[in-house]
């Protein structure tokens, strides 16, 4: 991808898709659904999945889930979009996966699971974003993935960039609530363990 194309993608994203996207530090103070663990396999994209969790003491709704390579704002299935999203109870964990059958064969089936076929189409770089509504504001948890030439690094300079998974490892971060604050570590390569928080 050439530099002009990268600039156009970034400009289009920042102006027309989600204007006013909060910076990382600002968003961390708001209640939101968080990305806990990801497994993105460039060679076998049907294995891709994202674990989301609600680390807060109240129910929070995941309003939208986005991948950067899809022009639409929401990759969640139509029936979920019609209901206004997915309500996460306090402490609830859920996995969005590219293929339910592949996920249950490779990992487990005793977990809340939603198939999001667009996770098969991630491309060589980009980001995923979970959108939550906190009071009257939308807040996001964003994870970039793929090539170090990821054009979105200019949009999200404070966010960690995760490579594609190798050696069957996922990327996981610890998230814990301390008082009113949510503390989180950087993502680290680990044995996949979706659903165990």
In the predicted model, the low-confidence regions spanning at least 5 consecutive residues are 1-28
**Number of discrete helical segments:** 4
Shape: globular
Multimerization status:
single chain
What distance separates the N and C termini?
A: 38 Å
How much of the sequence lies in strands comes to: 25-35%
CATH architecture: Sandwich
Question: How are strands sequenced across the largest beta sheet?
Answer: 6-5-2-1-10-13
DSSP strand tally = 13
Using the CA coordinates, give the radius of gyration.
16 Å
What is the name of the CATH class? Mainly Beta
Tell me about the biggest sheet?
A: 6 strands, mixed
Which structural class best describes the helix and strand composition? alpha+beta
Mean pLDDT value: 82
Helix content: 10-25%
Helix and strand sequence: HHEEEHEEHEEEEEEEE
Can you tell me the number of structural domains?
1
What is CATH's topology name? Immunoglobulin-like
3D structure, described in words:
With 197 residues, the chain is an alpha+beta fold. It has helices spanning 3-17, 24-28, 78-82, 100-106; strands spanning 34-39, 49-53, 60-67, 86-88, 93-97, 112-115, 125-134, 137-146, 161-162, 170-172, 175-178, 181-184, 188-190. The protein has one domain (3-187): Immunoglobulin-like, CATH 2.60.40. Residues 1-28 have low confidence and may be disordered. Helix content is 16%, strand content 34%. Strands 6-5-2-1-10-13 form a six-stranded mixed beta sheet, with no helix packed on it. A five-stranded mixed beta sheet has the order 4-3-7-8-9, with no helix packed on it.
